[in-house]
Write a structure and sequence with these properties.
The structure holds 2 protein chains of 2 kinds. Chain A is an alpha/beta fold. Chain A has 3 domains: 224 residues, P-loop containing nucleotide triphosphate hydrolases (Rossmann fold); 180 residues, P-loop containing nucleotide triphosphate hydrolases (Rossmann fold, 3-Layer(aba) Sandwich); 64 residues, no CATH class. Chain A is built from 19 helices and 22 strands. In chain A, helix 5 packs parallel to helix 6. Chain A is globular. In chain B, helix 8 packs across helix 9. Chain B has one domain. By secondary structure, chain B is mostly helical. In chain B, strand 1 and strand 2 form a beta hairpin. Chain B has a two-stranded antiparallel sheet. Classes of the chains: A alpha/beta, B mainly alpha. Chains A and B meet through helix 2, helix 5 and helix 6 of A and helix 1, helix 8, helix 9, helix 10 and helix 14 of B.
Chain lengths: 505, 336
Amino acid sequence: MEPVLAATAVSKRFPGVVALSEVDLTLHGGEVHALVGENGAGKSTLIKVLTGVYTPDTGELTYLGETTGFGRPADAQNAGISTVYQEVNLVGQQSVASNLFLGREPRTRWGLLDFRAMNRRAADLLAGYGIRVDVTRPLRTLGMGVQQMVALARAADTRARVVILDEPTSSLEPREVDTLFTVVERLRADGVAVLYVSHRLDELYRICDQVTVLRDGRVVHSGPLAGLPRLGLVAMMLGRDLEEVRRDGATKFEGEHTAERAEPVLTATGLTVKHRLDGVDLAVRPGEIVGLGGLLGAGRSETAMAIAGALPLDSGEVTVEGTRLRTGSVAAAMRAGVVLLPEDRKADGILPDLSVRENIVLAALPRLSAAGLVSRRRQDSIVDTFVRRLRIKAASPDQRVGELSGGNQQKVLLARLLCLEPRLLLLDEPTRGIDVGAKAEVQALVDELARDGLGVVLISSEFDEVVEGSDTIVVLRDGAVTARLTGEDVTEAALLAALAEEGPA
Amino acid sequence: MTSATETSAETRTTETRTERLAGLVQRRGSIVVLALVVLVSSVSFDSFATLDNARNIAIQSSFLAVVALGMTFVIISGGIDLSVGSVYALGGVLAAYGIQWGSLVGLALPLVVCGAIGLLNGVLVAYGRLAPFIVTLATLLGARGLLLAITDEGATTRLMPREDWLTHLGQGTFLGLGLPVWITLGLFAVGVVVLGRTRFGHATLAIGGSREAATLMGLPVARDTMLLYLGSGLLAGLAGTLAAAYSASGVTIVGEGLELDAIAAVVIGGTLLTGGVGTVGGTLAGVLLLRVIQNVINQVGTLSTHYQSVVSGAFLAVVVAVQAYLSRAHLRGRRR
């Protein structure tokens, strides 16, 4: 059968990054095709290429047998390629009906909008999907599930030949997921080609026929999903060869530093945030590195942010050295000695135009100042200590941080946290985007800090890093803890198995 | 389709009473306040509720209203047009300048030039992806400069012949009301239809609500954005022309700060400065409210006219505070 949409050898480069490299993807009508891959694998870029947001550097798109290049999203849409984005991309202030028909509203013979026809058709359309709402209400007054369904209904109603669903279920309740799947199944029955992006293995195996696995901008596997073992799929996503897993890795972590008897420095119980975390429990002892395992979207970053006070909790509590913390306050967490190294250091951490000194002492300024004035001498001595201790390679403390390498930027951020004299360090992807040498140095540093008695929570999408760095691994899925690996069990094989395990569905 | 899934969608969709009330105040608040102010003024001042005074307010409101109409659309789309005050003044001067070659030129010249300025704004904002604040600030200065250049630095004030039909457009009356008032009402009627009943208006609301979503939905975002600024320039030029015709001269010193009055009127009328929400009718109420307040202060007589600005400013502050409160109430309602 002729494919509806095919990408052949598509490459897309951004300054400094190859986002897609020679990617092939073939979508057939009446098939649900899963697209999987970890963060940065190139899924979003590929979707944007397919929908005309980006133009590929090389390679070719074939749609309904003809070579095409969509210049704009509108072109792709008019041609019959509809996309439902992860974040509902609709206009909240406008009515449900408007959102369904924006840009193709029914009109009277005077050329004016025919609201009566629009509302009637909107109600009929949604009723067809089992949703009965007042379509004249502003979209934002409805639940996320309904909003997602409206987005899907809009996508499916535009005489679409291809429907792309980008993590459609990330904010849905289980029963809303069921409704969504009925729609997907109907699309399949109607001969539409569906591209389904998700990290939830259970969903993939429930609904998808084909799978394409992306890693680092390349296709590492493409074929039927049925018969592909979960463990194999997860291993491919993470780039771990099953055989290799049994061998020793090559990170700089030395493992094992737990003071078994010590009281936990951090106890978190029942951390719950709607749609994101579901009763996560966590304990970290001084000198212990606790790794958080899980696929993208499992709630690892959210757990770290919740503990650091950067994510308001619906319920749950955080106790640091026996004292209960006021949750949802970064300042309170910092005072208690809990600090977070954020995942995106460019967006959330580094101030590139300020100097190394300024970046380091920033968070400590309140405690370095007397009567609002900051002692330059005390600043200098602190900066000096950390530049030496963390082996930060900068021309001088006055050098702009933006000029440093990624690894040194990361060390500057670490220094900023360490001069707060923390008790617990939350590290979210501490080695992402830094070169191999710097990576090893940061790993060694984290190890050293733990040996000095700091509690560490480590998040890393690099498998060997979590396994070799951690004394304990807490495995998360859909915001809940599904396994705890300790001692002998902290191995890549055990972690892979825990990740691939079938969920309660 | 199973009935189990049908019920699931309904459960979380109840709009709270507060939210509904908030929406109502947002949309209709300015009209209620206008009615109250008119009522109180009528009782307090004998000279307020007279036919002459009402005519007076109507004609004074009409020029600002036409400018504010274009501004309403621009602000609903999430933009801003600071150039309208200068463009308005330029329009008036060009009308008085062009009429020496005939009435048609007197009407066409300001529309062409002001439309071109609006188009320039639109192209730079829509296709050049520049911030509307900066773009229209630049054209504000440019239009003012152009105006000074053709009037010998404001020294020359050109008069418009009394018997010309273009002048009549500003000075004539129909059913007791000045022609500019009728023109304004006509334009607002068109504005209501365009915003509420056309794809263009619908798209304007969507662009203001979420530019990214509008783009991803395949709406002609850039084209519509450009048209919005073109419209704003044209309306400001037309308003200037009418004002010049009304006073039978191209006055060079008008229009300074008019863009701020227009923005104030739009915001008081319930349009959110953040875009996505707004009505044309609300803007008319906002304009009338500003002009009624001005009129009342003139009635009091003992107060300096500068207090008009103080009162309008205070009013604007209250409106913006209430809007912010209401939209936060909305957000809270949604998070629940």
